[in-house]
Amino acid sequence: MVEQAAESIVAAAARGIFLPGDRLVEAEIARDLGISRVPVREALRLLESQGIVTSTPYKGMRLMRVTNPGVAALMRVRLALEALAVREALALPGGKERFAGLRAAADAYAEVALGKDPAMRVQGEEQFHAELCAAAGNAPLLALWQSLARQLAVVWGLGQSVIDAEGAAREHLALVTALEAEDEALALATLTAHISEHESYDFEAVVTDRRRRAL
């Protein structure tokens, strides 16, 4: 139940129900989810340990703030991990069947990219990149990526108003195709372009615009 509460909070952030810096009130979240406050309290502590929630004395829990430099730093770390995943996945024995799960995740994202629910698109993006890291067969690498996944989910949720979801789906498929062809240079170039694109978005402006429209 704690994990489900944490996922619900992240999904709410992806849908714009919670914006960066918003106070997360334990009692209100518990009421909305129809559960007791105990699992919500534990979920907020879990999210705090993952950097999604911050706690300030006398001000309570708040959703992480999102700044353009902060997003750029997060993407650089993510790119380093995923580039390593590409190299290690290609170093493993076997043919293109080792990327069957990744292709399935790319196809699944392509389907949700056509939908209107930003939380589903965020979930699809997360599943695709988690599958990429899993393909490396490196448990510590996957664990490190997963420790960043919910921060990425908050950022991806904000970016849904500016990210071209169908374009992202094409980039996913291009990356899978390069991996299946064992073209490391093309795979790394495709991955780098896909991730670095986030640095061209003004996430701070997105937050400001959403707050203005919420008034």
TrEMBL record:
<protein>
    <submittedName>
        <fullName>GntR family transcriptional regulator</fullName>
    </submittedName>
</protein>
<dbReference type="InterPro" id="IPR000485">
    <property type="entry name" value="AsnC-type_HTH_dom"/>
</dbReference>
<dbReference type="InterPro" id="IPR036388">
    <property type="entry name" value="WH-like_DNA-bd_sf"/>
</dbReference>
<dbReference type="InterPro" id="IPR036390">
    <property type="entry name" value="WH_DNA-bd_sf"/>
</dbReference>
<dbReference type="GO" id="GO:0003700">
    <property type="term" value="F:DNA-binding transcription factor activity"/>
</dbReference>
<dbReference type="InterPro" id="IPR008920">
    <property type="entry name" value="TF_FadR/GntR_C"/>
</dbReference>
<keyword id="KW-0804">Transcription</keyword>
<feature type="domain" description="HTH gntR-type">
    <location>
        <begin position="1"/>
        <end position="66"/>
    </location>
</feature>
<dbReference type="Pfam" id="PF00392">
    <property type="entry name" value="GntR"/>
</dbReference>
<keyword id="KW-0238">DNA-binding</keyword>
<dbReference type="InterPro" id="IPR000524">
    <property type="entry name" value="Tscrpt_reg_HTH_GntR"/>
</dbReference>
<dbReference type="InterPro" id="IPR011711">
    <property type="entry name" value="GntR_C"/>
</dbReference>
<dbReference type="GO" id="GO:0043565">
    <property type="term" value="F:sequence-specific DNA binding"/>
</dbReference>
<keyword id="KW-0805">Transcription regulation</keyword>
<dbReference type="Pfam" id="PF07729">
    <property type="entry name" value="FCD"/>
</dbReference>
